[in-house]
Amino acid sequence: MFFNQLARKKRARLGLRKGAADRTLHFEALEVRRLLAIVNFDPGIYPNQYNPAGTGYLTGSTAVDLAPGTHNVRLGGSAQFTFDVDISGNVTSNNTDAAVGVGNTLTLNTTSITIDPAAYPNVYRPARIAPFGLSGVQNLIVVPNINDYQIAFTNSQGFSFNVDASGNVSSNNTAAAQGIGSTLLFNTTTITIDPGAYSTVYRPKDIAPFGLSGVQNLIVVPNINDYQIAFTNSQGFSFNVDASGNVSSNNTAAAQGIGSTLLFNTTSVTIDPGA
Asked: What is the pTM of this model?
């Protein structure tokens, strides 16, 4: 009895209750926090946009706080490479042709390539490796040993290409373009836009310099989807050109493809201003 009374007093001092509901004393483990390290990014002579470790696209040198582990640098489209950061902030590139790590700095390597649009006379858009739409032959500085750089057209993903460690170019869509040494050479085909009974302006985005009317022959890059025909304040509709230059419409109520011709469908509407 004496021992039972002593046990009850002990529980009372510890704030415990008897039985299954008895409280237990324990130590809560301290949260383990991952320490961040400052990593410097030096693009060297690379003049265009890159996205270090998902922080957003930018140009020029920058410093980013990063946890130890594997991170990537994006160069537009699906083009990217990875690097590792250790607990001390030291950087190791996993693609030493693309970049080198020295201490806590990752420096991009570069090479020069040429984009030759051949007979294609209008705008093309190298994603992130040029600041805006281009036309004509262009020399571009890029990061070597990278796959899936992108050439786009308005509202079209266009096609992708690769640059190897020596700066040689290869196309991932050989009907659209071919790589010859360090040059990406466009292939071209001619299509016809026939507006049918539609008598006013239509706007083929990027593949014509301005609004057009009437039947027009246009030089385009083959085997590309989602070329765009727009109207003022309207996105209009898109169409595709296959490897042989045949046209298909993605909106068959608006237009139809007949061989290499895109033929508009039309209807009449009445505008009644009332009183």
From this structure: 0.83
